[in-house]
Amino acid sequence: MFKWETEGSRFVMERLLEAGHEAVYVGGAVRDIALGLTPKDIDIATAATPEEIEALFRRTIDVGKEHGTIIVLVGEEQLEVTTYRSESTYSDYRRPDKVTFVRSLHEDLKRRDFTMNAMAINHEGRWIDPFNGLFHIEKRTIQAVGQADERFEEDALRIIRAVRFVSTLGFTIESETQRAMKKHASLLSHLAVERIKQEFDKMFRGDYLVQALRILYETGLHHYLPETKEEITLESFEYVEQPIEGWVLWAQCHQLASTELARAYKLSKKEREAIARYLTLLQEQEWTPWIVYCYSLDELLFVRRVNARCETESELRQMKERLPIQSKRDLAFDGRDVKQYYPNCRGKNIGQLLEEIERAVVLQKVSNDTEEIIEWVNEHVYERLCIK
Ligand code: ATP
Ligand code: MG
């Protein structure tokens, strides 16, 4: 067993080989091994057809048999096993019209996007690298397999993938490949926005995001992405550590409200709401204890860096720790108390009352003590909210 192999991957590999099918490790995992990283998920490619794969394993999931992909479950592991295939005639710049299963690994590697992703390792640890992927990894370059122009015409997502890999790997793009990206930028408008969104999420996780965005703009790709502006400043993207933060800055620099961004890039409701919170915080001038209470430390620290605020990280941590309560749950007064002490407070007023108490406690206008809260309510809000 190689040190990067898992029980599951070894098992699947051996089983396929024993049954007489050629099988190799492929794709991102092989690239990661070449980079000295531990691969995230290990993909296997095989000459066996999807039916032959299914017949060999007890637990399988058909995730796209027509494309040749079967997931094999081994213990807790999920392994993607894909039949060698070639792809032909991409009439819509998106998906191959026809997938042809082939028996040759070389054919399969040829249809892959970049040389670094078009290598395989067999069960004995032998590298199969017909397009010099290892050499390009050594040179830290991203190079299309074969004719870059053709490859981007076949599937324009590869253009965005190149940018995404710049962000995650810090590689540069080989000049012919980059020229072809620029030339075919307009093909991005044919892509399903969901696929772009997926690549953006990965791009926002990369350590070299600013470098990637610079290429995105230099090659003019932004013209063909939803709702973009001609020029943006890239510096603050340096602080992005997770996708949501990337989307926040993407919204900010293109002057989009969270709803507009979410519509344009088909973000989820959860993402849209998270972005809205960040955008509001970015506008807050004075960080009162109430603001510090309402936002998580992650949110505060990110916005602090983007806006180059004067609070230090440890000051913010302290401000947060010193708050009388950390969340509603810590409040010494809840819905049941409202019912008990203020039976005339009904409907919307209940929520309003609790919110005012919460605020008063956070701002230390009253201490977090049931008796004192009652006294404070009687004096300050009773007449407004607790009398019918
Ligand atoms: P990650 O580490 O982010 O998963 P990856 O290279 O494994 O990166 P995947 O999207 O998981 O990316 O794809 C697996 C492999 O399939 C790639 O390494 C590449 O060989 C091939 N591939 C994926 N998308 C394309 C595409 N659009 N065109 C050609 N080949 C592709
Ligand atoms: Mg992968």
Automatic annotation (TrEMBL):
<dbReference type="InterPro" id="IPR050264">
    <property type="entry name" value="Bact_CCA-adding_enz_type3_sf"/>
</dbReference>
<dbReference type="Pfam" id="PF13735">
    <property type="entry name" value="tRNA_NucTran2_2"/>
</dbReference>
<dbReference type="GO" id="GO:0046872">
    <property type="term" value="F:metal ion binding"/>
</dbReference>
<keyword id="KW-0548">Nucleotidyltransferase</keyword>
<feature type="domain" description="CCA-adding enzyme C-terminal">
    <location>
        <begin position="243"/>
        <end position="377"/>
    </location>
</feature>
<dbReference type="GO" id="GO:0000166">
    <property type="term" value="F:nucleotide binding"/>
</dbReference>
<dbReference type="Pfam" id="PF12627">
    <property type="entry name" value="PolyA_pol_RNAbd"/>
</dbReference>
<dbReference type="InterPro" id="IPR043519">
    <property type="entry name" value="NT_sf"/>
</dbReference>
<keyword id="KW-0694">RNA-binding</keyword>
<dbReference type="Pfam" id="PF01743">
    <property type="entry name" value="PolyA_pol"/>
</dbReference>
<dbReference type="InterPro" id="IPR032828">
    <property type="entry name" value="PolyA_RNA-bd"/>
</dbReference>
<dbReference type="InterPro" id="IPR032810">
    <property type="entry name" value="CCA-adding_enz_C"/>
</dbReference>
<keyword id="KW-0479">Metal-binding</keyword>
<keyword id="KW-0547">Nucleotide-binding</keyword>
<dbReference type="InterPro" id="IPR002646">
    <property type="entry name" value="PolA_pol_head_dom"/>
</dbReference>
<keyword id="KW-0819">tRNA processing</keyword>
<keyword id="KW-0460">Magnesium</keyword>
<feature type="domain" description="Poly A polymerase head">
    <location>
        <begin position="26"/>
        <end position="142"/>
    </location>
</feature>
<dbReference type="GO" id="GO:0004810">
    <property type="term" value="F:CCA tRNA nucleotidyltransferase activity"/>
</dbReference>
<keyword id="KW-0808">Transferase</keyword>
<dbReference type="GO" id="GO:0008033">
    <property type="term" value="P:tRNA processing"/>
</dbReference>
<dbReference type="GO" id="GO:0000049">
    <property type="term" value="F:tRNA binding"/>
</dbReference>
<protein>
    <submittedName>
        <fullName>CCA tRNA nucleotidyltransferase</fullName>
        <ecNumber>2.7.7.72</ecNumber>
    </submittedName>
</protein>
<feature type="domain" description="tRNA nucleotidyltransferase/poly(A) polymerase RNA and SrmB- binding">
    <location>
        <begin position="170"/>
        <end position="230"/>
    </location>
</feature>
<comment type="similarity">
    <text>Belongs to the tRNA nucleotidyltransferase/poly(A) polymerase family.</text>
</comment>
